[in-house]
């Protein structure tokens, strides 16, 4: 949910900047959505790299090499997020992010089933960790719509 709040907030800020500074590119909401997704994935990727130990618990016992996988997913989130910023790569980057979200979904299921706290100090209550699962398809749709708009 926090990720979704970031997507919405950045999208609206980009749209507002488009109106305030008369930037035609930012007056198309699909462009704002794509920029917001790029921003959020790059930020989350950086967090994976800066504090991987805070995320390894999500896959320890589920997959081997948890620390390396957190680093790898952080690098991929940064690369694919940046790929959304370039016309020549945005389609491929969007598809790569959608696949990455599908591949990371089991970790979110694992967190909910094992009743682990949500990452980033977010609420640890079961309602929150289970509700996070509903947002993963929404992120995929968000990315899909941002490259189709």
From TrEMBL:
The keyword Ion transport does not apply. Keywords: Membrane, Transmembrane, Transmembrane helix. The chain crosses the membrane at residues 33-50, 62-85, 91-113, 125-145. It comes from the Bacteria. This is DoxX-like protein. It comes from Chitinophaga defluvii.
């Amino acid at each position: 949910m926090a990720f979704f709040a970031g997507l919405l907030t950045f999208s609206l800020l980009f749209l507002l900047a488009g109106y305030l500074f008369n930037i035609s590119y930012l007056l198309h909401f699909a462009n704002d959505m794509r920029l917001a997704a790029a921003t959020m994935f790059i930020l989350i990727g950086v967090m994976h790299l800066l504090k991987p130990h805070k995320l390894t618990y999500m896959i320890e016992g589920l997959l081997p090499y948890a620390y390396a996988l957190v680093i790898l997913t952080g690098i991929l989130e940064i690369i694919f997020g940046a790929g959304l910023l370039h016309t020549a790569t945005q389609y491929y980057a969007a598809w790569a992010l959608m696949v990455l979200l599908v591949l990371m979904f089991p970790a979110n299921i694992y967190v909910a089933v094992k009743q682990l706290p949500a990452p980033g100090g977010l609420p640890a209550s079961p309602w929150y960790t289970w509700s996070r699962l509903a947002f993963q398809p929404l992120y995929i749709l968000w990315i899909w719509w941002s490259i189709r708009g």
